[in-house]
């Protein structure tokens, strides 16, 4: 989907995603000292807003201005301190940042080459000691899980993500890299009448 398609999707409903943060982003960032962060491909800003509430100064980057505008309104409505989230309309594959303590990418769905560019941009924006955190739909979810994209070209494994960082010349220490289960409750636009399991990949590394 291009930016226009995402603009239309975000404009068609109150919130496409939940207002709260992704469960893995919240869990993995809980032990980090707040600093300067980017939420790359932020969408409606749920993770950026949560990080700001924890004391982070966050740049929320997405190529959908409609999504960013919704995030900014939500942040204001719930009382996020002004100036703690900076809303930037830009493409994750070309955005450039620097001197960050944390880079978050959650469920960015791109082709392999575009994905690698976004991963490189996020990692290169970190200062030494910074954290790269990615959550995505795992390749195995297509056959073993529920929901998520049905195009295998935009799915990935933790090994794929680490290979992207290696190809970019990244030096890092792996904190976590693997497949994680996410429970999808009945009624969340998934098939069936009971809770099901979706499979995500999670990568957390510290830049050397």
Gyration radius from CA atoms, angstroms = 16 Å
Count of structural domains: 1
Biggest β-sheet strands, sense, barrel: 7 strands, mixed
Weakly predicted, low-confidence segments? none
What is the name of the CATH topology? Rossmann fold
Secondary-structure element pattern, one letter each: HHEHEHEEHEHHEE
CATH architectural arrangement: 3-Layer(aba) Sandwich
Strand arrangement across the biggest beta sheet: 3-2-1-4-5-7-6
Average pLDDT metric:
91
- What is the number of E strands? 7
The outline comes out as globular
Calculate the terminal CA-CA distance, rounded to whole Å. Answer: 34 Å
Give the CATH superfamily.
Answer: Vaccinia Virus protein VP39
Which structural class fits the helix and strand makeup? alpha/beta
Quaternary organization: single chain
- Give the amount of beta strand, in percent: 25-35%
Q: What is the CATH first-level class name?
A: Alpha Beta
The number of helical elements comes to 7
Protein name: Class I SAM-dependent methyltransferase
Organism: Nocardioides gansuensis
GO molecular function: methyltransferase activity
Pfam families: Methyltransf_25
């Amino acid at each position: 989907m291009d930016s226009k398609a995402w603009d239309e999707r975000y404009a068609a409903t109150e919130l496409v995603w939940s207002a709260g943060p992704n469960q893995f982003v919240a869990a993995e960032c809980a032990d980090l000292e707040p600093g300067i962060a980017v939420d790359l491909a932020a969408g409606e800003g749920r993770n950026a807003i949560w990080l700001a509430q924890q004391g982070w100064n966050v740049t929320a980057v997405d190529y959908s201005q409609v999504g960013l505008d919704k995030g900014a309104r939500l942040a204001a409505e719930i009382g996020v301190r002004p100036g703690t989230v900076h809303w930037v309309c830009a493409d994750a594959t070309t955005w450039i940042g620097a001197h960050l303590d944390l880079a978050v990418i959650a469920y960015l769905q791109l082709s392999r080459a575009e994905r690698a560019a976004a991963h490189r941009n996020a990692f290169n924006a970190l200062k030494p000691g910074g954290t790269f955190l990615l959550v995505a739909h795992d390749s195995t979810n297509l056959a073993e899980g529920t929901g998520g994209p049905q195009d295998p070209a935009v799915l990935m494994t933790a090994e794929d993500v680490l290979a992207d960082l290696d190809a970019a010349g990244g030096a890092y220490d792996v904190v976590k890299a693997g497949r994680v289960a996410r429970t999808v409750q009945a009624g969340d636009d998934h098939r069936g009448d009971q809770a099901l399991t979706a499979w995500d990949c999670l990568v957390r590394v510290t830049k050397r």
